[in-house]
Amino acid sequence: MATDTALTTEKLILPSDQDSSGRELGDEEMLNLAAAIESGTLTSTKGEFVKSLEVRFAASLGVPHCYASSSGTAALHTALAAIDPEPGDEVVTTSITDMGALTPIIYQSAIPVFADVDPVTYNVTAETIEKVLSTRTKAIMVTHLFGNPCRMEPIMELARSRNIPVIEDCAQAFGAEINGRKVGTFGDIGCFSLQQGKHITTGEGGLCVTANADLGRRMYLFINKAWGYGDPKPDHYFLALNYRMNELTGAVAAAQLTKLDDFVERRTRLANLMTAGLQGLPGVRPPAVDDGFKHTYWKYCLQVDGSKLEGGLDALAGRLKERGVFCAPRYIQKPAFECQVLREQRTFGNSRFPFTLARPEAVDYSRERYPGTYAALASVLVLPLNEKYTELHIQQVVEVIRTAVDQIVKG
Predict the structure, then answer these.
(1) What's the per-residue H, E or C state across the chain?
(2) How many CB atoms lie within 10 A of CB 26?
(3) CA-to-CA distance for 374 and 14, rounded, in angstroms?
(4) Alpha carbon 40 to chain centroid distance?
(5) How far, in whole angstroms, is CA 278 from its chain's centroid?
(6) Domain ranges of the chain
(7) What is the DSSP pairing of strand 166-169 with strand 137-143?
């Protein structure tokens, strides 16, 4: 493939979601912040911004209950506390996830049990989940990785047949859909993150939603130290934390929420342009999206066949970085269960609790049990994407990728 010399040497400067170059935070957020500060009420127990955010976000998903929290991790912890596992109960989750989705399981005295993933979509499936279910399974937590929905219908069919509640981790999947239905509404509880790099941001923050009134009550209480605000005789009903979102965060979130649909549309449109531009490239496959699924591209991931490129995945990543296209080969580098906290069961002092209650099979992390996980991490190349990208940025990134592949493709 012939390439333009100027294009192959120029270093790109791309918007970053870690600063204002890639984040749309402006007048709307400032006006809300000013209103919150002028009110003098910064706690959500008395203010209006967080309450309004909860109502509006619930309405956007068509569910009756939404509760805001201090982080995405807090939202997931809240969801697990609502399900209320017994010590030693098991929560089936994915082997490719952030530690923030795993530590809440351990803090609730439960055992994370890892399902393998589809090596093409990077998501758990009904088949991989079923292989690790046991009589001690208390919940299933699925992660819609990178904004690509899990295949929820068979997962829910499996879960309902075993009477197991499902938590959807939608931290990376705002606006993602399956046949017109938004993720976060398939399971019993859906959790979202407002962390710095998510589709909309408040730096840190979380949202959890449910259609189940009993679970909603438990979530509301857990966020509020289990204090029954508004009850005739309130008390601290059970062990719980203060995970409330404050009014300043709620003010920013309220403004960001008005922009969410636009941000999702931009990401999807630009990602589709990227996919079109990379078609037919040897050794590189754009994201796989099922028919009827809407992928909302928290990041844009390439599946790289290293056997077709000199130097493989690392060589391609290195050439992209040289040109200013930041990328992350192998994403989290290793399965979650290889992290020290899980590998060595470094929990509460030297107790190893709750792993002292675990079945041996539940903590068997033998490599042969996770072929999809290792195949996925060996081939994935994660590229950034945010609302400040333009069509020109996409064209430039496509050209950099095509040029790099042309330079190292075998044969």
Answers:
(1) CCCCHHHHHCCCCCCCCCCCCCCCCCHHHHHHHHHHHHHCCCCCCCCCHHHHHHHHHHHHHCCCEEEEECCHHHHHHHHHHHHCCCCCCEEEEECCCCHHHCHHHHHCCCEEEEECCCCCCCCCCHHHHHCCCCCCEEEEEEECHHHCCCCHHHHHHHHHHHCCCEEEECCCCCCCEECCEECCCCCCEEEEECECCCCCCCECCEEEEECCHHHHHHHHHHHECCECCCCCCCCECCCCCECECCHHHHHHHHHHHCCHHHHHHHHHHHHHHHHHHHCCCCCEECCCCCCCEECCCCCEEEEECHHHECCHHHHHHHHHHHCCCCCEECCCCCCHHHCHHHHCCCCCCCCCCCHHHCCHHHHCCCHHHCHHHHHHHHHEEEECCCCCCCHHHHHHHHHHHHHHHHHHECC
(2) 11
(3) 30
(4) 34
(5) 25
(6) 27-259
(7) parallel
Find the helix packing angle between 72-83 and 213-223, rounded to 10°.
130
CA–CA separation, 256 vs 2, rounded Å?
A: 43
Tell me if the bond preceding 354 is cis, omega within 30° of 0. Answer: yes
pLDDT in tens, 45-91: 999 999 999 999 999 999 999 999 999 999 999 999 999 999 999 99
pLDDT at site 10: 82
Q: Which residues contact 6 (CB under 8 A, 6 or more apart)?
A: none
* Residues of the chain falling short of pLDDT 70: 1-9
CA dist., res. 183 & res. 264, Å (int): 14
* CATH code of the region 27-259: 3.40.640.10
Q: Which amino acid is at 243?
A: Y
What residue type is assigned to position 201 of the chain? T
CB neighbours (10 Å) of residue 376?
Answer: 26
Tell me the HSE value of 35 on the side-chain side, using a 13 A CA sphere: 16
Q: Tokens in use for 149?
A: 């929905």
Sheet of strand 380-383, all strands in order from the earlier edge strand to the far edge: 284-285, 300-304, 380-383, 328-329
Listed in sequence order, the residues at least 6 apart from 108 whose beta carbon sits closer than 8 Å to its beta carbon are 77, 80, 81, 84, 85
Structure tokens at 159: 């879960």
Scanning the structure block, which residue is given the tokens 């009903």?
237
- Cα–Cα distance for residue pair 212/104, rounded to 1 Å: 21
